[in-house]
Design brief:
Layout: H1 2-27, H2 34-57, H3 63-86, H4 93-112, H5 122-130, H6 132-141, H7 150-183
Length: about 180
């Protein structure tokens, strides 16, 4: 069982290891080739999908594994988004709000609701998935073949960023008021 659990955790750990190089590459494009950056982002997405599948199929899913997975997702997307914000490619509000939303998610789950595992919300889950999209688009925008569409892609990235800022704020507010609505008779 421990060997099967290790496979899922190794997939998650790979994503964690890739967070710093990705952040640096988003912040300073000259540090990494577009192909390598795209490969890192795709690997992060693939391992995010695969670690859950492996954990479910091997019956090794656990609250600790889920926390490791979500914390790693948080670190990868937040560092990548922060690197992109540093480069002026998107609003710095997004990575800051991701930090607030993830902190609220963990605190709300473990301390407010006294759960022994994370308590997901519908909007928070979709935000978590969609935070990868600007990273993919930015990585794609670095290819020479895409440069002809650079202005359009830049507008798309910034528009998506502002939509994610809005949906993250809504998610934070929703999570903040949800306990009050549950307490009412």
């Amino acid at each position: 069982m421990a060997d099967r659990m290790r496979v899922a955790n190794l997939l998650t750990a790979l994503r964690l290891i890739l967070a710093l190089p990705a952040a640096l590459a988003f912040a300073q494009p000259e540090l990494m080739s577009p192909l390598l950056l795209l490969a890192i982002v795709i690997t992060a997405i693939a391992t995010d999908f695969a670690d859950g599948v492996v954990a479910q199929k091997t019956h090794t899913a656990s609250p600790r594994g889920l926390l490791f997975d979500h914390a790693t997702d948080f670190l990868f997307v937040t560092s990548g988004l922060a690197g992109a914000a540093f480069a002026g490619l998107l609003s710095a509000a997004l990575p800051l709000l991701v930090v607030v939303a993830f902190s609220q998610y963990v605190l709300d789950s473990y301390w407010l609701h006294r759960n022994k595992q994370l308590r997901m919300s519908f909007l928070g889950r979709w935000n978590g998935i969609l935070y990868f999209v600007p990273l993919v688009l930015i990585a794609l925008s670095r290819f020479d073949i895409v440069l002809d569409f650079g202005q359009m892609l830049s507008i798309l990235i910034k528009s998506l960023t502002y939509l994610l800022v809005l949906s993250t704020v809504v998610s934070i507010i929703d999570r903040a008021i949800a306990p009050r609505s549950l307490a009412r008779p």
